[in-house]
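U., I forgot to send this yesterday:
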Amino acid sequence: MWSNKKMLILVVVFAFSLSKSFLHCQANRGIRNYNFVVNEATYERLCAAKKILTVNGKFPGQTLYAHKGDTIIVNVINNGVNNITIHWHGVKLPRYPWSDGPEYVTQCPIQPGDQFSQKVIFSEEEGTLWWHAHGDWSRATVHGAIIIFPNYGTDYPFPKPDAEVPIILGEWWKADVTEVLREAVATGGDPNVSDAFTINGQPGDLYPCSQPGTFKLNVDYGKTYLLRIVNAAMNDILFFAIAKHKLRVVGADGSYTKPLTSDYVVIAPGQTLDCLLYANQPPNSYYMAARAYSSSNVIAFDNTTTTGIVQYSGHYYFSPSLPLPYLPSYNDTNAAFKFFGNVRSLAININHPIPMTPNTAIISTISINTFPCPNSTCAGPIGTRLAASMNNISFVRPPVDILEAYYNNINGIFDDRFPSLPPLIFDFTADYLPVSLQLPERGTVVKVLEYNATVEIVFQGTNLVSGIDHPIHLHGYSFYVVGYGFGNFDKSKDPLNYNIVDPPLQNTVVVPRNGWATIRFTANNPGVWFMHCHLERHLTWGMDTALLVRNGPSEANSMLPPPLDMPPC
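Result:
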C-alpha cells in the first residue's frame, strides 16, 4: 500500500504535468506577430523587368497561418510612395471592424512612412482565405493566402492530406498597373486588359520568356495534396483544371463543403477553394491551367492561358508534349453555373443557422452605367464616362472614413438611406434599354441594419450598357447563397426553389449575367462593412455600398473601441 508521501508526490507530478499541458495550450493560443513591410521590388515577367509594390519584397506575398479562433497582429509598415491599406478577405473580425482595411470605409489609408498594427481576430473561419491591398489597384501584386487550420485537438472532416499547397491565381500587366488605372480614370473608358494570368506569380511556359519560372508542383505517386486555391485576379472569373486529374472540392471561402469531384473548377475574384488532388496517374508531368470565363460578347478580356506543371517524382519516360487539361469555353455559362450550383455546405453550423423567415429584405440592382462627359470626349459608349452602381447609386469615397464618422458622430460624411428596393423599376434584363436609364446618382450611401436582424439580399443584374457576371463580396460576414437564376427575379415564384437545406456558406457570390442571386445572414457583427463587386474596375466605377450594423443591447454585442494608432485622415 502506498504511503501518504508517495501519494503526495504523485499528485504533485500529475499537477505539474497538467500545468505544463495547460501552459502549452496557452502558448499555442498566443498572439502571433507578423511584419508587413510595403515596398517596391523589381520583378521580371514577359521579357521585361519593372518595379511592383510588394509586401516584404515577395510576389505573391507571404502566407499567413492560424488556427480556428486565433488572433494575430500584423504590423503594416508603409515604405512605399503611395497610400496603402490591407484587407483580411473573409475574416469576420467580430466586433472589430477597425482592422478590416477598405480605404475610406473603415479607415483612412496608411500614408508613406507611417505604420498601423492590425489585429486580425479569427472566429468561425476554417480553411483558406486571403489578404490583399484595398485602395487603388495595388492589390494586383499586394496579396497572399491565409491558411486557417482546425482548432487544436480537432482535424479536417476528410483524411489528412500528405501536403498542402497554396495556388494563387493572378494577373500581370506589362505596364505599371497604377498607370493602367490612371489612364482609365482619365479617359473614362474600360481599363486595358492584362497581358497574362499567373499561377503563384508565374505566367507559365505558353507566354514568351516564361518557361524557366513556370510553377512546378512536385508530387509522389499515391499521395494526396490539398490545393488551397485563391483567385487574386483583378477582373476575371477563371476556369482551373489539371490534365488527367480530377479535383475534389472540400471547402470554399473558409468553410467546409460536401465533397464535390469535378474535372474543372470555377473561381471568381475574391473566392477561395480547397481541393484535394490525388496523385494517382501514371508518373509523368501534367499541365495545370487557368483561363477566363467571360459571358459578355462585347466586353474585352484577357483570353490567354496560364500554366503550371504537376511533376511526379521518380524515374520514368518523360513525354515531351504535355496536353492541356480540359477547360470549358470562355463563354460557357452552363459549365460555370453548373459548378457553382453543385457547391453545398457540409453541415449547417448550429451557431450560424440559415435565417428561415428574414425580417429585413433588400433587393439591389447591380449595373454598369455612364455619366455624361463634356463635349462627349470620354472613352465610354458614345463619348460618355463609364460608371457602375447598386440600386442606381454610384458610390463616392468620402474624405473621412465612414466607420470613424459613425463612431464619433461626425455629420455630413455619409447618407444612411440606401434604398431597400430599386428606385427605378423596368425590365432589368431586356435586350434593349433606354439610354436615359444609364445615368445613376452619386453618393456615399449606406444601409443601416439593426443588430440581429435576419437579412435577405437579392442582387439583380441588369443589361444596362452591357450585362456581365458580378462577384459580390460582403466584408465582416459569411452568408448562405440560397438561390440564383437568370432573368428578372420573381418574388412570388423564385423563393419556392431556394436551397434552405445545404446552401454554401460564402463571402463572395457570383451573380450571373442578366440574372440574380439571393443571400441570407444574421446581422450579428456590429460595425461598418463594405459590400462591393470584386471586379476591380466595377469597384472603381462605384458598384459599392456599406452595411452599417448597429450595436446590440449590451457591451458584449457592441463594437470594441478603436486602437490608438488608427491612421489619421
